[in-house]
Amino acid sequence: MKHYNKCLYLIFLSALLTAETTVSILSSSEIKLVIQLNCDLETPEDLKPIDLLIGLPNENLPQISIQSDKALNYQYQNIVYQKTEWTHQQKVNGLNTGTLRISPHSVEGFYYPKQTVTIRLDGQGRQPQKIAINQQKLLSPKITNWAVAKNWVEPKQYSLAKLRKFPAGRWIKFSISKDNVYKISADRFLATLGTGESVDPRSIMLFTGSSLGRDRTFDLTQKITGDVTIPENLVELAIAIEGESDGNLDSGDKIIFYGQGPSGFDQQVNDIFWHENLYFTESVYWFFFPDDSALRGKRITTGNSVPGGPLSVDYGFVNLHFETDIVNHQESGLAWGNSIIRQGGSFSQDVHFIDPMASIPASGSFGLIGKESVATRYYSTKHTARLSFNNQALSSITWSNLGLKSGDFSIPAGDLSNGIQSFQISNIADNPNSEPLYDYLTISYARKLSYASPFEFVSPVTENDITFSISGSNLTVWNITDPKRPVNTPIISQDNLTLMRVSLPPDTLQRFYTFQLEDVSTIENLSLLDTKHFSSLRDNLNGSQHIIVGPETFRIAAQPLVDHRNQSIYASIEDIYDEFSGGNKDPVAIRHFLQWTQNHWAQKPSTVLFMGDADFDYRNITGQSKMQVPTIQVGSTYSHATDDRLVSFNGVIPEMATGRFPARTLEEVTAFVEKTIAFETSMPNGLWKQRITLVADDPARPERESYELSIGKSHTLNSERLTNTIPGFMEIKKLYMVDFPEVSDGSAFGVIKPAATQALFDQITAGTAFINFIGHGNPTQWAQEKMLILNNERNDINSMHAEMKLPLWVAGTCNWGHFDQIGSESFAEELIRTPMDAASAVITTTRGITVSSNIQYLEKVFSAIFPGNGVTDATLGMVLQSVKTGGADGELFHLFGDPAMKLPIPTQIVNDATVSPDTLATLEVGTLNGSSPFSEGNGFLVFEDGATSYTQSFNFASRKEEITYMKSGPTLFRGSFTFEGASLSPQFRVPKDITYSQHPAKVRFAITSILGDEAIGAVTDLQLTLGVPSNDTNGPIITFETESGRMLRNGDHLPDGEKLIIRLSDPLGINLTGEKGHELFLYNPNLEEISLAIDQFIYDINSLNTGTIQYSIPDNSDQLSLGISAWDNANNPTEAEISLTLLKTKQLSLLHVYNYPNPFDFETQFTFELTADADVSVDIYTLEGRRIKSLLTEYYTVGYHRISWDGRDEYGGLLANGVYIYKMRASDGIQQINHIGRLAVFR
């Protein structure tokens, strides 16, 4: 329940319950943009601001002016005051933009019911530029003033990058884990080459990534940065080779270099600070051995000798850092700590001091991470920690969140002693709920320069000629201030004393590394790569429209999708690391690569699919990480995972559309690729493409505080609000949980609603293009009543059978797409992983989201799907760009699936359709008239009654409450038709059961050409009235058939896997309204099981009278007993039942063989049933066994058949009275079945 509770807390903190704060655009021009904010305050959450992305004519943020009504007071507590202001500025896909946060707040404690914000743009006079299609599709969904701002978009320029080309040669790869001077023996180097050749060591070069062993991801993704230049991939380091002067690498020679590991102390001028690498634990280095031995590598030079100066010191400053990341208690973000310190407890950190200078004080810092024993609503437990040394308090810190907190300290001169001493970090909080984690300790102290092992020190002064006295002999000292170009410092040896005279610059502290060569660490892990290309991705100058990024092991499995997409490429994560981060597993390399495609590829891709799972544990500290393609973890207090920052090249707003398939195995990739291709190439036609299913959580729970009633109601009311963005040609199916009965289950919330769950399963089976959910959730569940759930006891995905009518799921509920967990999988991940079923894609959130942000962003998504009352031709990834406006919650929305996938809804709209007559009476036939963009084809039609207002009551906190919403009108007709001559004229009938709603009825239709092109349309203003009564008193005729059209009777056999077809026919048509008492439903005669079949019925082509239901037989059944109750449109009923035996094998059997009449006079028939197709013959014998007649062998299919015989022998003569034997034989070429019986002739 941990994730579930966190989600609820977040909702309580900042939810906009009924989303009564709304924004409207009053006017938009090149000169100014006028926006109105209305706040109808009902709850504290109505005070949440709204973020809008505004297109700007230049880089300057324009002035805004605000006019408002009189500010009103509010009494709510814990409201975070936010004002209307610009919060972010970024150039996005060539357009200057600003994120404007519009807030209803006046001053703290007051709000504006209405305010008008005017933005002075002054963008007139700009000549419209020709913009790329990708710019149009990526920007138009999210720019508030796009109609004007599109004239300010700068066209994308193609620039040819100058690539660094390496000469021919061989590469040797190795890695190091910490900052140090290292050596490699000539023997080890030569053994790695393995050729026995002579090597000129002067040509050997050493390279590493331009970040010099460190990561760049933290700085480039945790901070808002703009206009980031893609760094050089590899830089050459200066090295020393002992014994290279003879031009031959001999045994005993050594390669020596200074290398930086993933974490270590970095320097900016005089500031030396620790860099903790949260992303990888080994830094990659590369030796290059060129084929051309005349080439020369960079070498460490020796500095100039300096005369003895006036200043001589025998100490330097040493920096120590202690940090061991063991646990990420949030299982999210970047807050990794060591050990939990409970109230009254402490953590002891041992530090080995070597020859500290007693006269000089030391200093440092320490850090902890907030954690609670029991999670509170706002995670606001107060923590207090104290750092002590030698039983003396050095410093204390206090904070009240889950984030990182640090403090500085100093140690008086003389307190340090040689050897190991301990620091204590103690939890002195008053609250026992406080249990922070120890994070780190950093210390800087002055050390006497005496050599026992290699060590680094920092000069204590700048701008001086100085002599350092180092105790020890045979020493080498390198100046490593520039780690790329260490300098060998001249020294003077005097007995056991080494003197180093240097001239210190005025602006930068100098760092030195002292060592004896025999004490230096040796590198052994060398790997020969022979040829290696570091520019294959950079060389792709032709570009592509779509990129798939994944591990090399997934390439072959993903190739069919690459081919299917056209102008698509697969980029392996290994190649990306090698070419954009020097081989280090630095996630920002992905961003550098994708930014390169935008800057330097002629065809600039607009979509990228990350083919692989990710989690929060980049370094596999848990030992359980299965990361394939990393995502970006953002933050340490309230953290989340997002792929947006892999494509946000100039800030936080993405400039490419992303999607992720969280593949863990090759088999999952194969299944996803097969499903995606099958869905796009073989999706069935039908009305399901025009259907949206809106699911809303129950308003009754939870019941802890009074305002939670508003939260509960908002789920249904916001679903109603969402209908305003959906055009009339779309059918809206509403599954509001408040409509369904409760069943007690003994869970934490006490009730479940299985009927609601089943209704959703039924809708998935019938087909729906979209499923949208608004309500509470967690990674594996919808609603407290377990609308959907995924656990060891119940896996609802197994009950979803879409048969390639795959829905797009949209769920802005908390954590439903929490894909970066370890040890558990979210519902969204398992949906998209389901082979050939369940989902085409999923749009959901990776963390908890407020109710207000949910509805605001859902409205943006649906407005992007249906722009201008039409249907977008943009891809799913581009549709999701509508929520990427620079606001924090926008990053929470994530697409699981291929961002290059198109929506299943046809984009062509028939706008001239009408219905005649314009007012339709009950039992009257109407005609749909319209022009088709196709010359001929077929179509589907649905006639739907007008919506009605409905009030539902429910219990909340032991009292009765009500909620009112619109119920969709019942279906009155659902049929199919053909057309030709580009003219539409299908007919439909009005049933007797109409609602007499004040709202008009509508007809929706979809048409398909003979070439497969599709179009849709609707007539939405139909008036219905009472017609002339009917004299018909007969109910529908009901028959049962196989898919091949064979009639079925009680006791028949039906092959396993074949559907049962139920045919209904009536001169006045079938009642599909679902009116109480007149429902079309199926039932089990032996059990109390009833299911509505309205959505499964469809009329035959061009028929007003006859239609069918395709019934899918449950798996693992041997017998089927089924009944159906139906009414015609004049409300005459019929019921019918059938019992069938289900055949589980294809084995041939000859069943129910009869001869009738028997005895007979002049004619008889042989009846039989086959369980498989077979050749059947009948032979007639006398009692003595003489064959007197063979009936012609014929081929029969599965099912009942009859063979007639006129009672004559082979010569045409009538048989005499008496008893005879007949043998029926059935053969399928493999099996042969015989049946022997008797018959009698009597005249």
Give the class from helix and strand content and strand pairing. Answer: mainly beta
Largest sheet: 6 strands, mixed
| Biggest sheet, spatial arrangement of strands | 45-44-48-52-53-54
Shape: elongated
Radius of gyration: 39 Å
Termini separation: 84 Å
Strand content: 35-45%
Q: Average pLDDT across residues? A: 93
Overview of this structure, please?
There is one protein chain. The protein has 1243 residues and is mainly beta. The strands form 22 sheets. Strands 45-44-48-52-53-54 form a 6-stranded mixed sheet, sandwiched between helices. Strands 55, 57, 59, 62, 65 and 66 form a 6-stranded mixed sheet that branches. A hairpin with a 2-residue loop joins strand 24 (383-389) and strand 25. Helix 6 (555-565) packs parallel to helix 9 (666-682) and helix 10 runs parallel beside helix 13 (851-865). The longest helix is centred in the middle third of the chain and has 17 residues, at 666-682. The model is unreliable at 1-19 (pLDDT under 50).
Short summary of the structure?
The protein is mainly β and 1243 residues long. It is built from 14 helices and 82 strands.
Question: Tags for this entry?
Answer:
six-stranded mixed β-sheet; 14 helices; single chain; 1243 residues; mainly beta; disordered N terminus
Annotate the secondary structure layout:
Blueprint: H1 2-14, E1 21-28, E2 32-39, E3 50-56, E4 64-68, E5 72-73, E6 85-92, E7 95-102, E8 110-111, E9 114-120, H2 133-139, H3 146-149, E10 169-176, E11 180-185, H4 186-193, E12 205-209, H5 217-221, E13 234-237, E14 240-242, E15 254-259, E16 264-268, E17 271-275, E18 283-290, E19 301-302, E20 311-313, E21 315-322, E22 346-353, E23 362-369, E24 383-389, E25 392-399, E26 404-411, E27 419-427, E28 437-448, E29 455-458, E30 464-471, E31 476-479, E32 487-488, E33 491-494, E34 497-504, E35 511-515, E36 521-522, E37 527-530, E38 546-550, H6 555-565, E39 568-572, H7 573-580, H8 588-600, E40 607-611, E41 632-634, E42 640-642, E43 657-661, H9 666-682, E44 691-696, H10 708-722, E45 731-736, E46 743-744, E47 751-752, H11 754-766, E48 770-774, E49 777-778, E50 781-782, E51 788-789, E52 808-811, H12 827-833, E53 841-845, H13 851-865, H14 876-880, E54 893-896, E55 908-910, E56 914-916, E57 919-921, E58 925-931, E59 936-944, E60 948-956, E61 959-967, E62 971-980, E63 983-984, E64 987-989, E65 1001-1009, E66 1014-1025, ...
Parallel strand pairs: 11-36, 19-32, 20-30, 38-39, 38-40, 40-43, 44-45, 44-48, 48-52, 52-53, 55-66, 57-66, 68-75
Antiparallel strand pairs: 1-2, 2-9, 3-7, 4-9, 5-8, 6-7, 10-18, 10-37, 11-15, 12-13, 12-18, 14-15, 16-17, 21-28, 22-27, 23-26, 23-28, 24-25, 24-27, 29-35, 30-34, 31-32, 31-35, 33-34, 41-42, 46-47, 49-50, 50-51, 53-54, 56-58, 58-63, 58-64, 59-62, 59-65, 60-61, 65-66, 67-69, 69-73, 70-71, 70-74, ...
Helix pairs in contact: 6-9, 7-8, 10-13
